[in-house]
Design brief:
InterPro entries: FAD-oxidoreductase/Apoptosis, FAD/NAD-bd_sf, FAD/NAD-binding_dom, FAD/NAD-linked_Rdtase_dimer_sf, Reductase_C. The chain is an alpha/beta fold. The chain is built from 10 helices and 26 strands. The strands form 7 sheets. It has a 5-stranded parallel β-sheet.
Length: 410
């Protein structure tokens, strides 16, 4: 290589791998170092709770890239490196083993870490968190001798696990502390719909309650709730959300709720960038954090462009995620902490609908799509254009979304 500049990427997950690859495909001629604390080749995490658990994917098919690709693209992949500190003056990073690395540009793609619970008896065997391949392997091995499973948390990870385990013929109970899980994201009606979906597929859902104790000799045998329910189980899965992994720290690196970045992926320290789950990034003027595959890919690619050509590509992504549960495909576009009204297109009973979240001016801020993939593109366009929509026409399935007429722009 003719250019001696070095870009170091910390984190070889979805964001890190796509950033490294994008640097090369966009023409970067310097050294690219991609490092991760995990010792396994970079792999895709979303299938862990679905295809991997049900046996539809093996370890080889989980890899993000064929190992030969890293050599072909001249990406220096260094695994088992646990980075902790950064020195922005000397432009070095330090790892737990005492090693140090120089950089000209640094990209933090450290992802997120699972929230954990402290419950009496949580040291028993058979209690799992699912984040890494090692977790998935341990779970799969344990499940060969298990029939009764308790899942703590009815978020998307817990819901996907429940669906996968039911496919494997297990007796599944979800314990959820709220009355309506994910209500702040999808609203009460959709939350109730998702709970009913589990019920229809034989999943026992206990809501407005929480597990306070695990019982058993060496392996978990029972989960006890605050409401006094005693649930027999031989395995427990805990999925209660995630927090940004901001372990790489410095006093001048703003990282309250995630590494704070601008629209170009720049942090509070020059030449240090961040991308993916670990970031707090500006969406229409409001800092948000998104923990989804699609965001990690697109954010990483955009930040890579800005590493190459400073402040050349603002990130204007419309947040998107999907979830597969009990044979249904759910998609969510946009971001709406608050909404004025919702409009349902289709019916909940049919399990094929699109629920729109509108602001006070009848502009679509977000949409939840159930088994209607054809609506994805027009929905994304509506959110991007932010034009005023007639709610009655939006609910009328005889009016094609792609032909939806907009009212006068505000």
């Amino acid at each position: 290589m003719s250019d001696e500049n070095t870009t170091v990427i910390v984190g070889a997950g979805i964001a890190g791998v796509h950033a490294a690859e994008s640097l090369r495909t966009e023409g970067y001629q310097g050294r690219v170092v991609l490092m991760d604390r995990d010792r396994q080749m970079p792999y895709d995490r979303p299938p862990l709770s679905k295809e991997w658990l049900t046996g539809k994917m093996d370890e080889a098919s989980m890899l993000l890239r064929d190992p030969a690709i890293y050599e072909k693209l001249d990406i220096d992949l260094q695994l088992g490196v646990d980075v902790t500190d950064v020195d922005p003056v000397r432009k070095t990073i330090a790892a737990k083993d005492g090693s140090s690395y120089d950089w000209d540009k640094l990209l933090l793609a450290t992802g997120s870490s699972l929230r954990t619970l402290s419950i009496a008896g949580d040291d028993l065997q058979g209690i799992f968190y699912l984040r890494r391949m090692a977790d998935a392997i341990a779970i799969k091995q344990h499940m060969q001798h298990v029939n009764e499973v308790v899942i703590i948390g009815a978020g998307f990870i817990g819901a996907e696990l429940a669906s996968s385990l039911k496919q494997l013929g297990m007796d599944v109970t979800i314990v959820e502390r709220s009355l309506y899980p994910m209500e702040a994201i999808v609203g009460r009606d959709i939350s109730a719909f998702l709970l009913n979906l589990h019920d229809c597929h034989g999943v026992n859902v206990i809501f407005d309650d929480s597990v306070v104790q695990f019982n058993g000799e060496s392996t978990v045998e029972e989960a006890v709730t605050a409401g006094g329910q005693r649930i027999p189980c031989r395995a427990v899965m805990i999925g209660v959300g995630a927090t940004p992994n901001t372990v790489v720290s410095h006093p001048d690196l703003e990282a309250d709720g995630g590494y704070a970045v601008n629209e170009f992926g720049e942090t509070s320290i020059p030449d240090i960038f961040a991308a993916g789950d670990c970031t707090l990034w500006p969406y229409r003027g409001t800092p948000i954090r998104v923990e989804h595959w699609d965001h990690a890919v697109n954010h990483a690619k955009t930040v890579a462009q800005n590493i190459l050509q400073p402040q050349s590509s603002p990130y204007t992504y419309i947040p998107y995620f999907w979830s597969d549960q009990h044979g249904s495909r759910f998609q969510y576009f946009g971001h709406a902490k608050q909404w004025t009204k919702t409009v349902l297109r289709g019916s909940l009973e049919s399990h094929a609908f699109t629920n729109f979240y509108l602001d006070e001016h009848n502009r679509v801020q977000a949409a939840f799509i159930a088994n209607q993939p054809k609506n994805a593109l027009p929905v994304r366009r509506m959110i991007k254009q932010q034009q005023v929509i007639d709610p009655e026409a939006l609910a009328d399935e005889s009016v094609a979304l792609k032909k939806m007429k907009h009212k006068t722009r505000i």
